[in-house]
Design brief:
The protein has a 4-stranded antiparallel beta sheet with strand order 4-5-3-6, with helices on both faces. The protein has a two-stranded antiparallel sheet with strand order 1-2. A hairpin with a 2-residue loop joins strand 4 and strand 5. By secondary structure, the protein is an alpha+beta fold. It has 11 helices and 6 strands. It has 3 domains: 59 residues, Orthogonal Bundle (Arc Repressor Mutant, subunit A); 79 residues, no CATH class; 104 residues.
């Protein structure tokens, strides 16, 4: 059974608005969604005011809300979770290293691990190579003084140690367990009330999207890419089911069709 961890008013608002293909969402819809998760109307209205003041959301002339301009680097990553496999290229055995003052969150977000004190690495298998990873790390807050460079000549002992920095057995187990959880939830949703189905699809879908977005994208032969691809495909199917769960609610409040099912996507907390 899904563990119910209620979203905050702030995260709920941001996640709901992020699903909009276009248009905006009225306050009453946001307040009604908050009730599904035990978030009070006052908490939702306070959060709306704070998010508006911070420029993270915008309000139109009707008093409806939409996302603010300028998606963050993390927001961009979330938006493309369906295409995570496009972020990977064939691995030639090389590595990317970061030396110097480093933002731990930026490194965790791209699955860097410390090989020796002061040197964090990951396989050089991401699209865009070293330049692309350097740009993404900077966008995520990595200090300009940190050096990001390719590493191509690790000795055999260091290379073997580097390949063990990630718990690949646990990662594969998680892929399989997650796919099973999605299948079980899909069956449960058919027997639930609308409100229950909306809540479960929101919470579980968000958890799996976080898992996909934060996946280390390890290359073959460290992890079989087919298992990661199978998880992403399973989540794509579940996303369709989630949209169906929320469709009636969205129509009830006159919200335009969404681009994805609402999901509890709290990436920042996951890498803090």
């Amino acid at each position: 059974m899904l563990l119910r961890v209620h979203p905050t008013a702030k995260s709920l608002i941001l996640d709901l608005l992020a699903t909009l293909r276009r248009g905006s969402m009225p306050v009453r819809a946001l307040v009604a969604a908050g009730r599904l998760f035990g978030v009070s109307e006052n908490s939702m209205r306070v959060a709306l005011a704070r998010l508006l003041a911070a420029g993270l959301i915008e309000r139109d002339e009707r008093g409806c809300y939409r996302p603010g301009g300028g998606a963050s680097a993390i927001g961009q990553q979330i938006a493309r979770w369906r295409r995570r496999e496009d972020d990977v290229r064939v691995w030639d055995g090389g590595w990317i290293g970061v030396v110097g003052p480093a933002d731990g969150r930026a490194l965790r977000f791209l699955a860097f691990r410390e090989l020796v004190r002061g040197l964090a690495i990951r396989p050089d298998n991401l699209a865009g190579g070293v330049d692309g990873v350097r740009e993404r790390l900077r966008a995520l807050g990595l200090a300009d003084a940190a050096v990001v460079a390719g590493i191509h000549d690790l000795d055999p002992v260091a290379d073997a140690r580097a390949r063990r920095l990630w718990d690949t057995a646990a990662l594969r187990t998680e892929y399989r367990a997650t796919r099973a959880a999605l299948a079980a939830s899909e069956q449960r949703l058919e027997r639930m009330s609308r409100d229950e189905a909306m809540a479960e699809s929101f919470l579980l879908g968000g958890r799996i999207i976080r898992q996909i977005v934060l996946d280390p994208l390890l290359p073959e032969p460290l992890v079989p890419a087919a298992e990661r691809s199978a998880l992403i495909e399973a989540m794509r199917r579940y996303d369709e089911v989630g949209r169906a769960c929320w469709a009636g609610f969205m129509r009830e409040f006159g919200v335009l069709p969404e681009r994805r099912a609402p999901a509890d996507v709290r990436i920042a907390e996951a890498v803090a």
